[in-house]
Amino acid sequence: METLNASLGVAITIANGDPMAAQVCRALMEDACPICALTAAGVRRYIDGFLYESVNDPMLREKLAQAQGYCYRHVWQVHDTDGKTNGGVGVTVLYLDFTERAVEGLKFHLRYAPIVNRLHTSWWMRAFRRLTGKRTSSNARITAIEPRALCPACRVEQEVEESYLDSVARLLPKPDFRDLYASSRGLCLPHLRKILAVVGAEERLFLAEMTHAKLATLLHRVQEYNRKHIWNFRAEPKLPEEQIAWIRTIAFEVGEKSQFS
Amino acid sequence: MLDYSAILLKDAFRQKGCPICYLQERGDARYIFSILYEMVTDWPVRVGFVDSLGYCHEHAWAQQMTEKEQWGDGMGTATMYESVLEQNLAGLDQFIKATRREIGYHRSPLRRGLGRVGNRIQQALPRLPIQVATEPRFPFGIAPHGMCRVCESGSRSVNASLDNFAAKIQWDEFRAWYRASDGLCLPHLNAVLERIEDSESRRFVVEVAVEKLEANAAELREYWRKRDYRFQHEPLTAAERDSWRRAVEQFVGNRRWKH
């Protein structure tokens, strides 16, 4: 508890009254990329909130229906959360509605497909296609079962990620924050790329040098992990940080493992 | 004629969920397994792996999970990522040098003098709505060159499965297999429809999809009804209990890497 209070104190001092910055500082003290962790928490909050009180909200339902429900990555998160809390009733209500809409769309297609086919195969349509060089044909996709909007959870994820990256960018010139960053695990490569694209040259240099130092250590640990697997060196003790170095490497290259990845 | 691809699809139709998703997941899992089993030190494989800086998020963690489950350690993955880390460091080195040069250039007296002159000219001229891109160009090592090799191979195998489906859907036997299956998920339904030329076959595929969706909708309604306290004494069937998971699968495809 005392350690937690101390770390919170440091975070609040560096953040100087900015709650978002305080969250970033706090997340830097954890054993993960702070942006990955905070973004995942933001999406989790959104999904919990949505399932708790907005499943029957007509406006949100309409937006969700436009996106054909959630995307592959988020729908399973919604599925598992709802399964744990409501036995899947939220997902049942939502997807019953979307299924009915999809059935309606497909039936509409079945009803009007012969007319559209006749239109596509008519001599004047073929002549038009030949003249314009357009390759439209009757075997096109059914738009009624395609998402027409971005997954709402993806939008939330994007917004949360951007706001935290912005917060890191604002904190980077502060020496206290730099000390904290130096002692943390740092950002994963996808988030590093994103932040390098928006900060000034001084901050870019600091981030790149820090990442270089951290990666050199990580590479050494991975090499040690591999070396100690060789028969001749099997007796050497395998350190805990070497044992997890390969997992840390994956986390650096692609971001933290989400529960639903 | 019953060929190998038809047998693959026949097997996939017997599985739960979308058959194309099943084949895709099986293909991805086999690719990752075979790389770990016998191609960790294979030079062309390593070049491809480093080129894309490892795999994408989904497949990188799938690789980690596969190795942990199959061999209980991370030797193969660690060996492969050693080269990626070396490339990361080389890329960062290059980036650091370029950034130092940039900072030195901005700090030089000549640059500052030119900057002042430039600023005065800019103030004198009317402001133009032009935004200069300031995004730095990342060297290889910070940014990848190619796409994830598992995704690449997966997309090839999905395209092949969809083409085979579209080519064989005119057979009566194949239609019977398809009708007896759980049906295609909506993304793969559309992808198959793009490939079917014959309007009668297209109609058949869509009709079966409607049947499957309607059947699941009926089970979803029952599941919802029986969750009501007034009907909670009525027993739930296995299909009803599973209907909400199946509904999700029908919209986005089978859940991958669930083991």
Model description:
The complex is a heterodimer of chains A (261) and B (259). With 261 residues, chain A is mainly α. In chain A, helix 2 (19-28) crosses helix 3 (34-53). The two termini of chain A are 32 Å apart. Chain A is elongated and about 75 Å long. Chain A has helices spanning 2-15, 19-28, 34-53, 58-66, 72-86, 89-121, 123-132, 152-171, 175-183, 189-196, 201-227, 240-243, 245-254. Chain A has one domain (2-89, 150-254). Chain B has 259 residues and is mainly α. Chain B has a domain at 4-28 and 150-252. Helix content of chain B is 71%, strand content 0%. Chain B has helices spanning 4-14, 19-38, 43-51, 57-71, 75-107, 109-124, 149-168, 172-180, 186-195, 199-226, 238-241, 243-252. The longest helix of chain B has 33 residues, at 75-107. Chain B is elongated and about 80 Å long. The two termini of chain B are 35 Å apart. The mean pLDDT of chain B is 90. At the A-B interface, helix 5, helix 6, helix 10, helix 11 and helix 13 of A face helix 4, helix 5, helix 9, helix 10 and helix 12 of B.
Distance between the termini of chain B: 35 Å
Q: What is the count of structural domains of chain A?
A: 1
| Total E-strand runs of chain B | 0
Major beta-sheet overview of chain B = none
Output the helix-strand order of chain A.
Answer: HHHHHHHHHHHHH
* Poorly predicted regions of chain A: none
Share of helix of chain B, binned: over 70%
The 3D shape of chain A can be described as elongated
Largest sheet of chain A: none
Estimate what percentage of residues of chain A fall within beta strands. Answer: under 5%
Radius of gyration of chain B from the CA trace?
A: 27 Å
Find the count of extended strands of chain A (DSSP E, 2+ residues).
Answer: 0
SS-derived structural category of chain B: mainly alpha
| Cα distance spanning the termini of chain A | 32 Å
Computed structural class of chain A:
mainly alpha
Overall mean pLDDT score of chain B?
Answer: 90
H/E element string of chain B? HHHHHHHHHHHH
Contiguous helical run count of chain A: 13
**Residue fraction in strands of chain B:** under 5%
